[in-house]
Each structure stands twice: as structure tokens, then as C-alpha cells.
Automatic annotation (TrEMBL):
Keywords: Membrane, Transmembrane, Transmembrane helix. This is DUF805 domain-containing protein. It comes from Lentzea guizhouensis. The chain crosses the membrane at residues 27-48, 54-73, 85-103. The keyword Oxidoreductase does not apply.
Length: 131
């Protein structure tokens, strides 16, 4: 499992990269971080009445959402799906729920067309040790 600091560091450094894979823990820790940042920015910049401050806040929030979108694409890659699956959110009523379910699926346990598994699963972990 990826720790929160590693997940946030990976998310930030890979903001403009749609290649590769992101584990479930990496994705969800980064989602929590991004929501906290967006709420903080919205709260901070809503206090200003000038158009410049609102513009800076809006651009900052858009950058955070772009970063979150790239993490979502890498998470879809981890499940073996194309990033185009993110467009499923455009389906009325069920799209957002369906995308949420896709984000919670386990990773493919082997290398796929998007890269190697970030944290390989030990195939012998479920077997009892020999006596």
C-alpha cells in the first residue's frame, strides 16, 4: 500500500503524465489531498472580491482538477482500461457511479499494455508456510 506522502508526491510530479499506472491507495490518497486543496482554495479565494484573486483561484482549482484527471487515467490503466473510460462520467444518472466503481477495482496483477504493476503482489502470500 502506498503511503499518503508518496501518493501525493507521485500525483504532483506526474500531473502532466497520462502514462503508467496508479495503485488504488495512491489514487484515493491523492483524491483526498486534491479535495482538501480545492476546498482550501475555494474558501480562501471566495473571501476576495477582486476579479484578479477570483481568476487566480479559478486557475489554481483547474490545475488541481487536471492533476486529478491524469491520476484517474493512470488508475484506469492500472485496471487494464484505456483512459477513454473516464468519459463514462458523461452518461446521465449512472456515469459517475460507474466510474467510482471502476476506480475501486483491484489492479491487474501482471504487467499490462500500460506498464508494470507498481507494487507486485506476492503470489505465495496466501499459502501456509511449509512445516
Amino acid at each position: 500500500m502506498t503511503g499518503i506522502t508518496t501518493a501525493v508526491a507521485n500525483g504532483i510530479t506526474r500531473t502532466f503524465s497520462w502514462r503508467g499506472r496508479a495503485t488504488r491507495s495512491e489514487y484515493w490518497f491523492y483524491v483526498l489531498f486534491c479535495w482538501a486543496v480545492v476546498l482550501g482554495l475555494a474558501f480562501t479565494f471566495s473571501a476576495f472580491e477582486s476579479g484578479v484573486a477570483a481568476s487566480i483561484g479559478g486557475v489554481s482549482i483547474m490545475l488541481v482538477w487536471f492533476s486529478l484527471f491524469s491520476a484517474m487515467i493512470r488508475r484506469l490503466h492500472d485496471t487494464g482500461r484505456s483512459g477513454a473510460w473516464a468519459l463514462i462520467v458523461l452518461l446521465p444518472f449512472i456515469g459517475g457511479f460507474w466510474l467510482f466503481l471502476l476506480m475501486t477495482e483491484p489492479a491487474q496483477p501482471h504487467p499490462n499494455r500500460f506498464g508494470h504493476l507498481a507494487h507486485p503482489v506476492d503470489a505465495t502470500a496466501d499459502r501456509p508456510s511449509p512445516k
